[in-house]
Write a structure and sequence with these properties.
Blueprint: E1 2-6, E2 10-14, E3 19-22, E4 27-30, E5 38-39, H1 42-51, E6 61-64, H2 71-87, E7 91-93, H3 99-109, E8 114-118, E9 132-135, H4 142-149, E10 152-156, H5 160-171, E11 176-179, E12 189-190, H6 194-206
Parallel strand pairs: 6-7, 6-10, 7-8, 8-9, 10-11, 11-12
Antiparallel strand pairs: 1-2, 1-5, 3-4
Helix pairs in contact: 1-6, 2-3, 4-5
């Protein structure tokens, strides 16, 4: 991806085929001036879209995973939270412990916003890093709401609950990105590492077709 200067939009995000991204219409259009510019990382492109374009991707990115998480899952979730919070995405999760607490901690460290959609009746069941706790009182049925509300879903490890959230998201037509030992579900894209995750997220939120990001 490149950031280029255009007469109409100022800075714009360009791909390698002579197109620029229109953040208002959320589509790619051909542009005669889509040459030159500065090559940027996928993470930088995401930050430009969310913080500088004036028209960020507004649906939250859901991050799901087990409450009883492994050390690797916790570490990865925190890094994912830092990536999402640092680039300007709102993060949606189940608001409890394990992967959910770790991703919220990462978001908080990056100065971002997390929303915890709790299965409980009381907001104070949320982990201490959640920015906005929402007590639903509907138990695991909130899994479907997380999947429906998300613009994209990232799964880090997980068991039956994570499996259900991934399946719901796919049923609702949401991109699903799987990290570490997340369940293998047809339609989910398995990614390896933060660089690959940033690439997959950029393609998801700008409407580009999926690429091979399993590196």
């Amino acid at each position: 991806m490149r950031l280029i200067a255009t007469a109409a939009r100022g800075l714009a995000l360009a791909d390698g085929t002579g197109r620029v991204f229109d953040p208002v219409a959320r589509c790619w259009t051909a542009a005669a001036a889509a040459a030159g510019g500065t090559e940027v990382s996928d993470e930088r492109a995401l930050a430009w879209l969310q913080r500088e374009s004036g028209h960020p991707f507004r649906p939250p990115i859901a991050v799901v995973g087990p409450r009883e998480a492994s050390a690797a899952q916790v570490a990865t979730a925190r890094q994912v939270g830092e990536l999402l919070g640092g680039t300007g995405f709102v993060v949606l999760c189940g608001g409890r412990q394990g992967v959910m607490e770790a991703v919220c901690a990462g978001v908080a460290a990056a100065g971002g916003i997390s929303v915890g959609l709790l299965p409980d009746e009381h907001w104070d069941a949320a982990n201490r890093f959640v920015t906005i706790p929402i007590a639903t009182g509907i138990g695991v049925a909130r899994n479907a709401i997380i999947a429906r509300a998300a613009g994209c879903l990232v799964a880090i490890g997980g068991g039956y609950g994570t499996h259900s959230e991934m399946a719901f998201a796919l049923q609702f037509g949401r991109p699903v990105l799987a990290l570490l030992d997340a369940p293998d579900i047809a339609g989910a894209m398995r990614v390896a590492g933060l660089e690959a995750l940033a690439a997959a997220l950029l393609r998801a939120v700008t409407g580009l077709p999926p690429a091979d990001v399993t590196r």
